[in-house]
Design goal:
- Helices cover 74% and strands 0% of the residues.
- The protein is mostly helical and 509 residues long.
- The chain has one domain: MFS general substrate transporter like domains (Growth Hormone, Chain: A, Up-down Bundle).
- Helix 1 packs parallel to helix 6, helix 11 runs parallel beside helix 18 and helix 14 packs across helix 17.
Length: 509
């Protein structure tokens, strides 16, 4: 078996990546904006939102290894992974829409507190069901590259492109948010609930159509036969134990958890835009409607700068990764990117704090180049962690003879969801730490300006996209120093693994 053989055509690579774009759209609207929707549209309490988002996402993360274990044990006539994607796609799209249903506009929760319980029940049910549907499809979907090709270099290229396109999909809700919030006055749209309804309708329909492409466009090639039960050694370690004993994989998992602060760049941006900066004309002498329009425009602009820098820094890095992979190993790329991101976050913090304390609004824009560099690790980790997991699965098969694709990939999706839960939870915790309740800022229907908040409150909110992610990048580089699947060792594993498969009569077409 030629370990350098190429198995994927351009059409298959691009169609899988387009499917990843659809998935990214639906995930991004939930992960980036659901807390803002709960707080600003449904007016749900901070403690409730904290408990719901953190507990649900933590439980969802725990479910990933369970789903991975189930998938690994069963192969259907339609394939090992594709059926799960097919059956979960429609429920996920429908639930994405239902999660953003405007109970605030329909039932006027603020005027009738008795209906708040119903809204909380509805939010809980739709949130939990969405998490379940997403998990059933997410683990198999990101396991597909590991069975589409046995070539680690080709697999790395596939992960690089698909994760890049997936991230482009995640930027689409932000673009729609910017348009609707920035031009709300001209469009005659006053309700945030209406804006979200328009965004989620577009995302759900298009996301579903693109996501389903993966069910028809890709081929599962690396299917290692399950060992018959009667031939299994009773002393053989369990699947979970094998993974826990795989040192390289555990290092990648640890790296991902420590890097959870990177998700704040997406999860916290809209909150920072609302409560850290005001970029606009003086509000003196303006009518309430004019003030609302000015505030909405400022929120749109600041959110655009933060998410735009995040997208450009991340996408730009992703586009460079295929070339970097040819010159440097994964370890070197990750460590260098994380240290650079930490350094940039320090400068971002200083400039942002001065802008807030001294009320030098123009200085906010001087943060842009440093936020770009600060987001380089997002692109590196978003792609490279998946490629590293693929190499770890090769290592595991080479060492034990077992290849647990779904459960191994579930480790990465577990890390992503746990990290997202931590990031989302920390956003709500920051509200509590600085003593800021969104309900108070909209008392009696009036919008409280950002400039009316204390410097401590504004700086605290700003830290969510500056020093906190930076520190996370710094500490996540520590376990990577001990990761050793690279260079000659990686080449030797790939070559010997090809020989092992050939000896077992496993043919990969």
């Amino acid at each position: 078996m030629d370990e350098n053989k190429k198995y994927l055509g351009k059409k298959e690579i691009w169609l899988y990546s387009v499917a990843a774009l659809g998935q990214g759209m639906m995930y991004a609207i939930m992960s980036g904006y659901i807390t803002d929707f709960y707080l600003q549209v449904l007016h749900l309490g901070l403690p409730f939102v904290l408990i719901l988002t953190f507990v649900s996402r933590f439980w969802d993360a725990v479910n990933d290894p369970i789903v991975g274990s189930i998938v690994d044990r069963h192969t259907t006539k339609w394939g090992k992974f594709k059926p799960y994607v097919a059956f979960s796609a429609l429920p996920m799209a429908v639930l994405t829409f239902l999660m953003f249903f405007d109970w605030g506009g329909a039932l006027d929760i603020k005027a009738h507190p008795e209906v708040a319980v119903g809204a909380m029940v509805y939010a809980t049910v739709t949130y939990v069901l969405w998490d379940m549907a997403y998990t059933v499809g997410d683990v198999p979907f990101w396991s597909l590259p590991n069975v589409m090709t046995p070539n680690p270099d080709e697999r790395g290229q596939l992960f690089s492109l698909s994760r890049t396109i997936n991230s482009i999909g995640s930027a689409i809700p932000t673009v729609l948010f910017t348009i609707l919030f920035g031009f709300a006055g001209k469009l005659g749209i006053k309700s945030d609930g209406t804006k979200y309804l328009i965004i989620v309708s577009f995302v759900s329909i298009l996301g579903l159509a693109l996501y389903m492409i993966s069910c028809f466009a890709v081929k599962e090639r690396v299917l290692i036969p399950n060992m018959p039960k009667e031939k299994k050694d009773p002393n053989e370690p369990s699947v979970l134990k094998r993974l826990l004993q795989c040192r390289p994989l555990m290092l990648v998992v640890t790296m991902g958890i420590l890097a959870s602060g990177r998700y704040l760049m997406g999860a916290a941006s809209v909150h920072v835009a609302r409560y850290a900066f005001y970029i606009g004309k003086s509000t003196e002498g303006l009518t309430p409607d004019e003030i609302n329009a000015a505030v909405s425009s400022s929120i749109s602009l600041v959110n655009l700068v933060l998410t735009g820098c995040s997208a450009v820094g991340m996408f730009g890095t992703m586009l460079l990764l295929p070339r970097l992979y040819k010159k440097y190993d994964y370890k070197t790329i990750v460590v260098f990117a994380c240290l650079a991101g930490f350094g940039a976050s320090l400068i971002t913090t200083v400039l942002g704090v001065i802008s807030i304390v001294k009320d030098v609004r123009l200085l906010f824009f001087f943060c842009i180049p440093f936020i770009l560099v600060q987001c380089v690790p997002l692109g590196v980790l978003n792609v490279t962690s998946y490629a590293m997991v693929g190499d770890c699965l090769d290592y595991l098969e080479w060492k034990t003879g077992y290849r647990d694709n779904a459960l191994g990939s579930a480790c990465q999706t577990f890390v992503n969801k746990l990290s997202n839960a931590l990031a989302t939870g920390f956003v709500i915790i920051m509200y509590i730490i600085i003593g800021l309740d969104p309900k108070d800022t909209m008392a009696n229907g009036a919008v409280k300006l950002v400039t009316d908040l204390s410097h401590i409150q504004r700086v605290g909110m700003f830290s969510l996209v500056s020093i906190v992610p930076g520190l996370s990048m710094l500490v996540c580089a520590i376990p990577v120093f001990f990761y050793d699947i690279s260079g000659e060792k990686k080449k030797r594993i790939t070559a010997e693994l090809a020989q092992m498969r050939q000896a077992k009569g496993i043919t990969i077409e």
